[in-house]
Design goal:
By secondary structure, the protein is of the alpha+beta class. The protein has 4 helices and 11 strands, in the order αββββββααβββββα.
Length: 180
């Protein structure tokens, strides 16, 4: 892997400004993920770090090192749709040097809107990262029927209904012994 060590050293700390929040964080070379092809529409942006903030869970940020004001909101797709199983083409497995499924980290980009009910996640184009090699790529799930704009809150409501229906009738009544 050819992470630009000079860029990492030059940016020993960075200012992250997603939605006006300023946070100063150290950036170490082992935390930088290289995207040789960039991302669609951002082909010149090659290095990213992933930032997790407790107050923004289940979302996290995929933040570019350069330009420093570029960040993508992401989510673990398995939180939204547990049966998500994107097929990674052999050419992408080879490109990412993936030797086992355990080396792959999958995240999906979220489109944030003013109305939280309209927030969507792109299930058709997951971000796949080889954690061992610090190498990433956004792939396209050709031949799979995953939507580009999957409504997150509808999915969470659906999961809540399924869990409620699964547990319906399974609960035992609670009884209390009253001392006499």
């Amino acid at each position: 892997m050819s992470t630009s060590k000079s860029m990492v050293e030059r940016k020993g700390s960075m200012t992250v400004n997603p939605y006006g929040r300023l946070v100063s964080l150290p950036v170490h070379s082992e935390n930088v993920f290289h995207f040789p092809e960039g991302l669609p529409a951002f082909e010149n942006v090659k290095e990213f770090v992933f930032l997790c903030k407790p107050d923004s869970r289940p979302f996290f940020f995929m933040h570019a090192l350069d330009p420093a004001d570029l960040a993508f909101v992401c989510i673990d797709p398995f939180l939204v749709t547990p049966d998500y199983s994107p097929r990674i083409p052999d050419s992408d497995v080879k490109f990412l040097h993936l030797e086992s499924p355990e080396e792959a980290f999958i995240a999906n980009i979220v489109t944030v809107t003013r109305d939280m009910r309209d927030i969507t996640v792109n299930l058709q184009g997951p971000i796949v990262v080889n954690i061992r090699a610090s190498l990433g790529k956004q792939i396209i799930c050709d031949g799979q029927k995953y939507p580009v704009r999957y409504r997150i809150w509808d999915a969470l409501n659906k999961l809540e209904v399924e869990v409620t229906e699964e547990n319906a009738g399974k609960e035992e009544p609670v009884t209390a012994a009253i001392p006499g």
